[in-house]
Predict the 3D structure of the following.
Amino acid sequence: MNLFSRLGRTLRRALCLAILALSSASIAQSPASLTYSISLLSPEQHLVEVQIFLPEGTAQSELQLPVWNALYQVRDFAQYVNWVRAKDRSGHPLAVRELNHSRWQIQGAERGAIVEYQMYVDAPGPFNAQLNTHHAFFNLAQILMYPVDGRSAALNVRFSHIPEGWRIATPLASSFSGEEFTAANYDRLVDSPVEIGKFQESDFDEGGGHYRVIVDADSGDFDLAKIVATLHKIVAAATSWMNDRPFETYTFFYHFPRGPAGGGMEHAFSTAIDVNAEVMRQSLDALTSVTAHEFFHLWNVKRIRPQTLEPIDYTKENYTRALWFSEGVTSTAEGTIQLRAGLLDEEQYLYRLGEQITELERRPAHLTQSAEESSLDAWLEGSGYYRRADRSVSYYNKGELLGVMLDLAVREASHGQASLREVLQWMNDNYAKKGRFFNDSAGVREAAEAVSHSDLGAFFTKYVAGTEEIPWNDFLRSVGLRVEVVPNTVTDAGFTASRNFDGPMSVNAVTSGSEAEHAGLQAGDTIIELQGKPAGQESREELTRLNVGDTLTVKVRSRRGGDRELKWKVGSRQEVSYEVKNLDQVTDQQRARRTAWLKGEAQSAMENSGVAGTAK
Ligand SMILES: [Zn+2]
């Protein structure tokens, strides 16, 4: 909780006025360091106005608005900039020249300048920026330009015209007023989301760390005490697994919207997560999974970071082969953290592992696109065609499975002396804590080989850089498991669909000869409603609940515009599922190895602590 939120209303108003007065005065004086002022000018019209106070410098100063931020897609935030203008400290206009759609040159800025622009911001969710009459949530890279020659400079940011009763929550360090914040540089600034509104708040301490929980949602949709109890378990499990806590304070931002939602964005000192309100009322499972994932990112990708993502180039795509590790292995860790926290049991974990194997095996592209290529091609994920099962695999899905198999491979190669935990801790010690970045897959291999004292080249060549079928049973045998291929009859709606991160659900492919095709569904159609409900993250579950012969009703919008309602009967098809089962005979040794594996610990470590006494 920040100081400002504890102050009484009258005092707060007085302070507000004082700050406003200070702000106007400082325009004339112009601050010595780079300062941003963000005015929540018009919530009704979703307009913010930004002022950038440039310190004295070169005559021609260039400002750049990022074209992408955090999410690996070029989104050209400049499309929302209504106008840009500049003046000197005396208020005389300075010439502003647009160099390209996202870069502007200010002339005559040698004695400092004030650059002003207006932006429309109304995109909901953790990957976006939004101002409306309910709240503001900002990823600052989407609204703040940076001086091209001054991205590493320390800076200040303040907010003005904040509606009555709204408070500010952000991991940024605040000054005494609570409305002005500081950051060591632009990258740190834009890694710090900001929520401004009438949110609910809680906090707790765990293992020496302080945690803030900010929830902006209808109070009937969630139980804050239950969320906090779950977070306690997650942060304790993750920090003990990594044997590290590289922060004093960490902030969880949650939104539980009624409409389509789902997803989380990682930051070094915080995370922002959206879960649909309906999903929240049913159980905390979705929140638990995404929270474990995003929290682990504070190490993997934020601190254990591939060299190919540094320094960030905000002007174009940044290509990396490492997302199978940075995202996928974060999903592997998400499972382990939940197991260690007691939020998932062995049966549930193995069931989910089977689901992940099924997902990969059912995508024909697993034979044509490697995990590294899927990482490089992340920038194509906005395309519905690219998301087809015969075009791409998911670096989340394959990467998570590679994390599980690498864990088992390291255990085998090191005779139980090491595991994925040691790989991650080695990377944390040798890269993150030394301020170094790792060399994509080669850097992961270096760590895995260092802790296992073995050559793991074949693993990386075949399954990470290559598209060889992963021999699941060869890996799973050591823990007494095997994969069983189970043929079954599944319902078939006659089409596949997917969403871009916050986009609508679009039809990727329609099965030739299917009822869906006869009803008139076409690839490229956008699904607006499914069974009378707005299409979104929950639609996938809606489809899985259908039985053969049920009538499916969808409202779709064609690519040329025009909505239509289509109905057809759900059919069936033969498909195989992959289920993870016990071997017919599970030895004591395999059982002991499995216990250590599910705990995320090297077998030797567990034996030394006396947990798994039966192992040889
Ligand atoms: Zn992630």
